[in-house]
Design a protein that fits this description.
alpha+beta; Transferase(Phosphotransferase), domain 1; 5-stranded antiparallel β-sheet; kinase; globular; about 425 residues; 2 domains; Phosphorylase Kinase, domain 1
C-alpha cells in the first residue's frame, strides 16, 4: 500500500493530527475511527498532556544504534540522543508506506490511548510525529530493559520475592489506572514491564488495549479478541481465550498478572511450550500454575540434580517439603542444589492463587490487590530499593563514564551493553 493512497483514504495522518498526536492544534474531528466511542465518553475526564516536552523534529535527535525491530520488520527501534538536552531516548520508527490498513488503525488506537493516559507507572510517549514517510514515536530509554530481559540474562531461575513485589506493585498501579479509565490492557506480561535507571517500573504494550466505553456508557464485558496476540496467548485468561457470549472484563488482566508473577518467580512462563489447543483445555479445566518452591515441588524431585523439568508447563505437581529452604524466595546459591530449593512466603502464594482463580468473579480488582499483605514487605521507595535488588545488573548508562559515545570504542561498548535486550518484544 502506497503512502499517497494511505493518505487519500484518510486512514491515519490527518485523524491522528486531529487528536493532537503530532504536536499540532486540532482543527476539528472530521474523521472518527478507532476508539471513537471512548473519546466521546472520556471528554469529561482531565487530560494531562504527556507530549510537547520533546520537539517533533527528526533533526533534534541523534540516532546512535539500532536496538530492535518489530511489526513484521516495519518498525525499527533506535537508541538516540535528544540534542537539546543530551538525554537518551528510544525512538520507534515505523515505515508508513508499507503498513496495511489494519496496521494503521491498530497504531492509531495505540497513539490515541497514549495521548489520553498520564500516569507515572505507564511508559509515556514524549513526542509523536512524521519524518518523511516514517512515524516516529519518542519514549524514555528504560536502562534496565524489561523484566523479561532481566530474567533471561541474570535471573534465569526467577527473581527474589522482594524484587517481584516491587515490580508487581508498579504493574498494579498501572492497571488500576487503566481500568479506572475504562480500558482492558490485554497484553500483561514481563516483557511489557520496563524499568528505568532510577528504578521506576512502567507498563507498556498498549497496542492491544481495548475500551469498555461505548456510546458514552461503560460496557460490562468485551467480546473482541486481541489482534496480533499469538505471542501473548500463554498470559491470556481462560475467558479471553474461550470467546463465548459471556465475554470478559478488566479482571482478565488480573489473571495475566498472576501468570506474570509466576514468570518472574520461576524464570519461565507457565503453559509456554504447550500447543495452543492443549493450553486452552488446561486453562478451561481449571489447571492453575503456581510458584515453584519447596512447598510445591515433591521432595524426591528436589533431591535430584538441577533440572528444568517443570519449565515446559509451569504447573505444580502438588505440595511437598524437604531439602534446604531459602526464605523469601531467594534461589539456592549452591552449584549442586536444585534451583527451586527456596520457600516463598504464604502471602505470595495466596496472592498468585487469587489472581489465577478460574472464575473471574472471584478475582480481586487491581485496587484491592494493592492492599494485599504480600506488599507489606515493601519498606522503601522503588528508586532506593530496586537498583540494589537487581545487582549485579547495572543500568545501561555505565558506558558514558568510560568512553565518549562518539568514539568507535564508545559505540561498540554501547552496542555490547544493549545486545542482551529483547527489544523486539518491549512493545514501546
Amino acid at each position: 500500500m502506497s503512502f499517497l493512497r494511505w493518505v487519500s483514504e484518510k486512514l491515519s495522518v490527518e485523524s491522528l493530527r486531529d487528536l493532537e498526536l503530532f504536536g499540532e492544534q486540532a482543527q476539528g474531528l472530521s474523521h472518527r475511527k478507532a476508539h471513537e466511542d471512548s473519546q466521546e465518553s472520556l471528554t469529561s475526564l482531565p487530560r494531562r498532556d504527556t507530549m510537547g516536552s520533546f520537539l517533533p523534529d527528526s533533526g533534534s535527535y541523534e540516532l546512535l544504534t539500532v536496538i530492535g525491530r518489530g511489526l513484521d520488520d516495519l518498525m525499527t527501534v533506535n537508541l538516540a540522543r535528544y540534542r537539546p538536552t543530551g538525554e537518551h531516548v528510544a525512538i520507534r520508527r515505523i515505515d508508513l508506506e508499507s503498513c496495511t490498513n489494519d496496521m494503521v488503525t491498530y497504531l492509531q488506537g495505540e497513539l490515541h490511548v497514549s495521548k489520553l493516559f498520564h500516569h507515572p507507572s505507564i511508559l509515556p510517549y514524549k513526542s509523536v510525529f512524521i519524518a518523511e514517510n516514517e512515524l516516529w514515536v519518542i519514549t524514555p530509554f528504560m536502562a534496565y530493559g524489561s523484566a523479561r530481559d532481566l530474567i533471561c540474562t541474570h535471573f534465569t531461575d526467577g527473581m527474589s520475592e522482594l524484587t517481584i513485589s516491587y515490580i508487581l506493585l508498579g504493574m498494579l498501579k498501572a492497571l488500576e489506572y487503566i481500568h479506572h479509565m475504562g480500558y482492558v490492557h490485554r497484553s500483561v506480561k514481563a516483557s511489557h514491564v520496563l524499568i528505568s535507571a532510577d528504578g521506576q517500573v512502567c507498563m507498556s504494550g498498549l497496542r492491544s488495549i481495548f475500551s469498555l466505553i461505548r456510546h458514552g456508557q461503560r460496557a460490562k464485558v468485551v467480546h473482541d479478541f486481541p489482534q496480533y496476540s499469538v505471542k501473548v496467548l500463554p498470559w491470556l485468561s481462560p475467558e479471553v481465550l474461550q470467546q463465548n457470549l459471556q465475554g470478559y472484563d478488566s479482571r482478565s488482566d488480573i489473571y495475566s498478572l498472576g501468570i506474570t508473577a509466576c514468570e518472574l518467580a520461576n524464570g519461565h512462563v507457565p503453559f509456554k511450550d504447550m500447543p495452543a489447543t492443549q493450553m486452552l483445555l488446561e486453562k478451561l479445566n481449571g489447571t492453575v500454575p503456581c510458584l515453584l518452591d519447596t512447598t510445591t515441588i515433591p521432595p524426591e524431585e528436589l533431591s535430584m540434580k538441577p533440572s528444568r523439568s517443570g519449565a515446559d508447563s509451569g504447573i505444580c505437581e502438588g505440595p511437598g517439603a524437604g531439602g534446604v529452604r531459602h526464605s523469601n524466595g531467594e534461589p539456592s546459591t549452591s552449584s549442586s542444589g536444585h534451583p527451586y530449593n527456596r520457600t516463598f512466603s504464604p502471602h505470595f502464594h495466596a496472592f498468585v492463587e487469587l489472581c489465577l482463580q478460574r472464575d473471574p468473579e472471584k478475582r480481586p480488582s487491581a485496587t484491592t490487590l494493592i492492599g494485599h499483605p504480600f506488599f507489606k514487605q515493601i519498606k522503601r521507595r522503588p528508586s532506593e530499593a530496586l537498583p540494589e535488588l537487581l545487582r549485579p545488573v547495572s543500568p545501561i548508562t555505565s558506558f558514558e563514564s568510560s568512553q565518549p559515545q562518539d568514539s568507535p570504542s564508545g559505540l561498540a561498548s554501547l552496542e555490547s551493553g544493549l545486545s542482551h535486550l529483547e527489544v523486539d518484544d518491549w512493545d514501546f
